[in-house]
Specification:
With 417 residues, the chain is an alpha/beta fold. The chain has helices at residues 20-32, 45-51, 56-69, 88-91, 111-120, 141-169, 189-201, 227-248, 265-278, 290-301, 303-318, 320-324, 341-345, 349-356, 367-375, 377-383, 385-393, 395-416, and strands spanning 8-12, 37-44, 76-82, 96-100, 126-128, 137-139, 175-179, 208-210, 255-259, 282-285. α4 links the parallel β3 (76-82) and β4 (96-100). Bound molecules: zinc ion (ZN).
Length: 417
């Protein structure tokens, strides 16, 4: 039987593999409150590279958290954003694979392949009525050709990765996601419809799909964009998925995966209402903001902990360009708003925490400070045992912040409220 992802799932990220239990505690709390949420630990190749960890460490973190807290529900380990070139070390420890084919979007498949696909879509030309979308879609052959020209090769590539994984792990032993979020242009709901048609044509048993939405999803800070337009696109995608499951025979539990970059508070409410309206499932991935809660906990611990937090900032400030480089398209730092390292050295633990914690109602909250520290985990990684020993020494106060952040600011507004 195929491994089947539950209706609601939540992707947790953890740079230093120290907060497995604190993260799982948030999921347990959600379940106690009536939201059946399944935890998925994810960590991308980019993060492994910067921190110097191996994919197997995420499996170790998940297994030991589950054992320690006696979690008896399902849980998964997601090889986030992989392609054929980097997948090898992820194969054994992962059971959820996010096939990233963004690099192939916009590159055309062969003319014969496109023509054959467009032919198969013949019965979806003209007026297509989709439950939940007022007026439905008016589809022309040119539209299908254009969508195929842009996306078909990417889907063929996803097929290659999937078949490689299926031969290595056995096709029933993992969950498949296709991600297209790390690209320039958002996908429209009508593109989504024919992307799903191509995925079905490729025989890809995906359970989640991650489109790019309108607006900016910067790492660790709130959504920037037109919330109404986002809500419309999100609801239309849900309607398209329902339609595609019935029409194309895709997996019954197929659902959207939102690569949130964490903390998209402005759209959590609309997402919550939309999934309930459509009876839809949802997977939400967060980025590694758990690491920022570690810094908050260290700062609040004072003394040595606060010293480490301040030193991370001082170094991050001098290495801003280097740290921001890999994240250039997903951060937006106003350098004029960054406090000087000497100012920060004079702050109390509370002042440091207030500037960093994502509480937009707090006057001291500084989104530039937060974003720089978010990409500054490389500095902490370089501190090595000094940093991870501090995580152990101040475990209690850090864990409290990690759990509260995930439960109160994320899981609750998305799945419960
Ligand atoms: Zn992503």
């Amino acid at each position: 039987m195929m491994m089947t992802l539950e209706k609601y799932s939540f992707g947790l990220g953890d740079r230093f593999t120290h907060q497995g239990r604190a993260q799982l505690a948030a999921v347990i709390k959600a379940n106690e409150q009536g939201a059946k949420v399944t935890p998925v630990w994810n960590k991308s190749n980019r993060e492994h590279g910067i921190v110097g960890t191996e994919p197997a460490s995420v499996r170790g973190e998940a297994d030991s958290a589950v054992a320690a807290l006696g979690w008896d529900g399902s849980y998964y380990v997601d090889a986030d954003h992989i392609g054929l070139k980097i997948v090898e070390p992820f194969i054994e420890p992962s059971d959820f694979f996010t096939l990233d084919v963004a690099d192939f979007i916009g590159k055309a498949a062969s003319a014969e392949d496109i023509a054959a696909f467009v032919d198969k879509c013949n019965r979806y030309l003209g007026a297509v009525s989709v439950e939940g979308i007022e007026g439905g879609f008016d589809v022309t052959k040119e539209m299908v050709e254009q969508i195929a020209g842009k996306y078909l090769l990417a889907i063929r590539e996803a097929g290659k990765i999937y078949r490689y994984l299926a031969s290595a792990k056995g096709e029933d032993n993992f969950i498949t996601e296709v991600s297209m979020d790390e690209t320039d242009q958002p996908q429209t709901p009508i593109e989504m419809l024919f992307i799903l048609a191509a995925i079905a044509d490729e025989g890809l048993p995906i359970q989640t799909i991650a489109p790019k939405f309108t607006g900016r999803f910067n790492k660790g800070v709130d959504y920037v964009g037109d919330v109404e337009q986002f809500t419309r696109e999100f609801e239309q995608d849900l309607a398209v998925i329902n339609y595609a499951v019935k029409q194309f025979g895709l997996a019954e539990n197929l659902k959207l995966s939102i690569h949130s970059g964490s903390d998209k508070f402005a759209i959590y409410g609309p997402m919550n209402r939309a999934i309930k309206k459509f009876g839809a499932g949802l997977h939400v991935k967060t980025a590694g903001t758990t690491w920022l809660e570690e810094l908050i906990g260290l700062a609040l611990a004072g003394d040595e902990g606060l010293g480490i937090a301040e030193r991370v900032y001082r170094q991050a400030l001098t290495r801003c360009d280097e740290l921001c480089g890999p994240y250039a398209t997903v951060i937006d730092i106003d350098e004029g708003r960054l406090p000087s390292a000497d100012d920060v050295a004079g702050w109390s633990g509370e002042e440091f925490a207030d500037a960093l914690r994502h509480d937009q109602a707090c006057e001291s909250y500084n989104r530039s400070f937060r974003q720089l520290l978010h990409v500054g985990y490389k500095i902490a990684a370089e501190m090595g045992a000094e940093f991870t020993d501090a995580l152990d020494s101040y475990e209690q106060i850090i864990a409290r912040n990690v759990t509260e952040n995930i439960y109160e600011r994320h899981i609750k507004p998305i799945f419960l409220d």
